[in-house]
Design brief:
This protein has 434 residues and is α+β, with helices and mostly antiparallel strands. It folds into 2 domains: 200 residues, no CATH class; 221 residues, no CATH class. Helices cover 52% and strands 18% of the residues. The chain has 16 helices and 12 strands. The strands form 2 sheets. A 6-stranded mixed barrel has the order 2-3-8-5-7-6, surrounded by 4 helices. β2 and β3 form a beta hairpin.
């Protein structure tokens, strides 16, 4: 213990013989750690915001569908009323009250929407307006008119209301109050007899545009229309049946747990319960690509910082050959020389980590509170295709911080081995020559 404490004491004094060089080296490594923390914080924060926006433009954090719908997307694959009642009863229990934020049953189908000027193929989404407003982002993106309400006019009172996207409105050359005709085919459930003429017939109905939304996603703004659930069920002749139940949760991390519980509740029924990762695999793949690119860039930056520090440590070791020769002549063994130099490097690393954590967490705290506003990049306003919130708030978990510190610590420790080996191999005759 006395030997080790003596080596630590000598190494610490050696470290501060050149305080300017020590601080500059520590600052360089600390800035590498700070850059890693800030980069990972913005990566996780942007992904978190993108998930929050994407699930509200898609099928929620968890989706319940008829078995096979994810692959086939057939409008004939429907959930019976019993599944809807069982799922909603479970999701509205006391234990799920703080977990589930909204539940919205939907009917999904395809059709042809036409006006006096043009016609376009559309994807029909039948919703319960009050429930959909708690789950979907579309009701919040209305730019003209108003979204659907639960007490709308029936078909007997005149044209029913439909909400469409801005691009679709432009193609059809319609505005609020314009009348459009929706043509679709009544659903023929599997096993239905061909003699049943009511099923499979083409339906043409008159609708009035009551609201126009803009999400910024061309696939949504040019093809999605929203109708009331009861009216879409009557149009498709599927009373009490829905295509999908979209579930929005308070926290994304509960998706797996809720999906697992729902599978147990609906065991034996031909349904599929999917988390957002399973229902939107393209989004998950984009996150993986984004992560890989970020790791490569961080790796390049850390490698450049590491090589610079390695060069500094090595040069300082080579400049002290005379000192190492004297230590050897006084009886210090090669192993002890190597331990002394590694101790100096570890002390330098500790200083660097402290500086890097202070700098990185300070920058992270500022942007986590105020956010990084990307609108300054667009002096004339945001582009029309901009979908997500332009203010990014970084997020850092303890796991990310521990991982970053471990990576930098390992890198700095490994870099100290070669200079320590050079010091241990100091030969007396050459080292003591002045």
């Amino acid at each position: 213990m006395t030997e080790l404490s003596l080596l630590v004491k000598i190494g610490w004094r050696n470290l501060w013989r050149n305080p300017r060089g020590t601080l500059l080296t520590a600052l360089a490594l600390g800035m590498g750690l700070a850059l890693l923390l800030v980069s990972l914080g913005f990566l996780d924060g942007s992904h978190e915001q993108m998930i929050a926006e994407a699930v509200r433009l898609g099928s929620g954090h968890v989706a319940i569908q008829a078995k096979g719908y994810q692959d086939a997307s057939s409008q004939e694959l429907l959930l019976p009323a019993r599944v809807v009642s069982v799922a909603e009863e479970f999701l509205h229990t006391e234990t799920m009250k703080d977990v589930v934020r909204g539940v919205s049953p939907r009917v999904l189908a395809s059709g042809l929407l036409s006006s006096a000027a043009n016609a376009e193929g559309v994807s029909i989404v039948g919703v319960v307006p009050r429930e959909e407003q708690a789950v979907s982002l579309i009701p919040q993106r209305i730019v003209a008119g108003a979204y659907l309400n639960d007490d709308g006019p029936s078909n007997d009172d005149g044209p029913s209301e439909v909400v469409i996207g801005t691009e679709l409105a432009g193609k059809l050359e319609v505005k609020i109050g314009s009348k459009v005709v929706l043509m679709t085919q009544a659903v023929r459930p599997p096993g239905a007899e061909a003699a049943d003429r009511a099923e499979g017939e083409m339906q043409s109905t008159l609708w009035r545009v009551s609201g126009i939304f803009r999400t910024g996603l061309q696939a949504i703004d040019a093809h999605i229309i929203h109708l009331r659930l009861s009216q879409s069920q009557a149009l498709l002749r599927v009373p009490d049946q829905v295509t999908q139940i979209a579930i929005l949760l308070a926290q994304e991390g509960d998706s797996q747990m809720v999906a697992k519980d729902l599978r147990q509740q609906l065991a034996g029924i031909p349904v599929e319960v999917l988390t957002w990762r399973e229902s939107t695999p393209m989004l998950v793949q984009s996150f993986r690509l984004d992560d890989a690119f970020n790791y490569v860039m961080n790796g390049v930056v850390l490698a450049m910082v590491g090589l610079g520090i390695f060069n500094t440590i090595l040069m300082r070791a080579l400049e002290r050959r005379y000192e190492f020769g004297v230590c050897t002549a006084l009886g210090l063994r090669p192993r002890q020389l190597a331990e002394m130099l590694i101790g100096e490097s570890l002390a330098l690393t500790a200083i660097s980590l402290a500086m890097g954590l202070a700098l990185g967490l300070g920058i992270h705290h500022h942007f986590a509170t105020a956010g990084l506003d990307l609108r300054w990049l667009f002096k004339t306003g945001l582009p029309t295709a901009f979908v997500f919130d332009p203010i990014i708030y970084p997020r850092l978990s303890l796991r990310r911080i521990a991982w970053s510190v471990s990576i930098v610590f390992m890198m700095a420790t490994i870099m100290s081995f070669y200079p320590a080996l050079k010091a241990a191999r100091t030969e007396l005759p050459d080292a003591l020559k002045v």
